[in-house]
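BUG: 3D viewer hangs when loading the predicted structure for this chain

Environment: internal workstation, default settings.
Expected: structure renders.
Actual: progress bar stalls at 90%.

Input used:
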Amino acid sequence: MNMFSALEISATAMRAQRIRAEVVTANMANAETTRTEQGGPYQRKQVVFAASRFQRQFAGTPGASAQAVRVVGVVQDPTPPQMRYEPSHPDANAQGLVAYPAIDPVAEMADLMSAVRSYQMNASAVNATKQMIQQSLDLIR
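Structure tokens produced before the viewer hung:
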């Protein structure tokens, strides 16, 4: 693998982690949403990742391939909503229960911190690779 494919791998990982962070923040923002356009409470979403191979022709390594990460999709969490007794709430059912999204703010925050740290690590890898490329160019001069 050459340095340019390392850049591409880190870039795909950064893109995937950015999407993950966006989904987590949407979950946190909607933790108290009891009514959506589809009806019912907001449903927590999760990002699904997969490894993908890409091939490039590199000098000296024809047909070389590397693995990158890609987002396969964003799926809804099937966990049933949390029911809370709030008879005065406008979305309360006949028993006075309101369906709230099954979102744990602590778990979401941990997931967000993981996405941010992963993004930062890939950004560090990009910077290290750029420095190696620059040093290689300096040696050629």
